[in-house]
User: Fold this.
Amino acid sequence: MNTLVLGSAGFLGLNLVDALRAAGLDPLCARRKRTNVIPLRSRRARMVNVDLDDAASIREAMTGIDVVFHLAGHYPRHSQDGLVAMETGLRQMQNVLDAGAEAGIKRMVYVSSTATVAPSPSGYSTESDVFLVAPGFGVYHDLKWLMERRAAAERRYEVRIACPGACIGPWDLRLGTSALVVAAARRLDVAHPDGIVAVVDSADAAKGIMQQGLLADAPARALLVGGNYRLHAMRVALHERYGVPAPGAPIGASEAKALADAEESRALREHRRGALSREIVDLIVHGLPIDASLATRALGITWSPLSTTLDRFDAWARQMRIIPPLENVA
Amino acid sequence: MITPQAQEDRVRQILSDLTNVPPADIRAGDRLREDLGLDSVGSMELLSMLAEEFDIDVEMEEAAAVADVAGLMALARRHLG
Assistant:
């Protein structure tokens, strides 16, 4: 089976490439012209340049491919220019979907987000809980909802949707959810709101995505979550784990949104990353408990315990000097 | 085989492309983050561009250890001889 991974140089992409190779496949790895390909080079991965704004480059990469894993959906790094983010995300999604049809692929797995999962009256949300209209929480949620809706409407070939929760694990070089771990290890206490965070080990998420692509019979939408946690309780446990003083009390949702908006404005002016981003605040404040039992059954995943996930991330982060060497940690 | 001077010139040019600092203004002691304004992602992109440009096998651990221009030049020398 010929497979293509869009977004292969990214966090989840590298985990997926490893999973596919462990399963005996040799995926073609699509990469942007300017990105960090050192991990792909060290894996001796087959690479191809793809620009999601260049339809021909996508079509060419997909030629002869059976299953495409699309992990390169636009991720708005800030919420300051929502219209541009929406337009970019939808345009690129359409380019990818059209290229799949023109190249004659059999199946695509589009990796979306648990941001698209709607609340359930029963408490725990499942695959059937979908927002009927854009959630309206912020740019990230609305764009992810729009992109997933566009992907789910594709009828020229089969599209399956994977919704991983907040991923923690090796190769999170940009530090998404793993930033919580790094902050604790570095004795940083960044103000956060409280809410439910649906966490998943990156290797488990990658396995789920892979199975959705490879199994003849798999759910059209799968929620990939290993456990649901209150963020503040998780931060307290992380600070205990690293032997550092407990984090400050959570801030309110409105205060957190205002802080994140101010941080994003400052980060844009100073061309640097803010301490807290709006999409993270929205994900926490609107976080939902998720029931991932369908993925457990249909995709055969055994979710890693959080302690195992944290151990794996810690070992990798120390190797990469993201977390200080043990002798420097009090 | 690329000469040491050509190596150094090319490293400065790649750095300049990423940072918009003129090659002549880039000093060996400049730190990638503090002096040249590259964040951790930018630093990794730089190392990746270098690896592709010179077709050398750099491991992430080695790349992560590079903090300044001198370290970058040393890495290039180590791999290119």
User: Anything to note?
Assistant: The radius of gyration of chain B is 11 Å. Chain B has a mean pLDDT of 89. The interface with chain A takes residues 37, 39-41, 44-45, 47-49, 51-52, 57-61, 63-65 of chain B (CB under 8 Å). Residues 4-19 of chain B form the longest helix (16 residues).
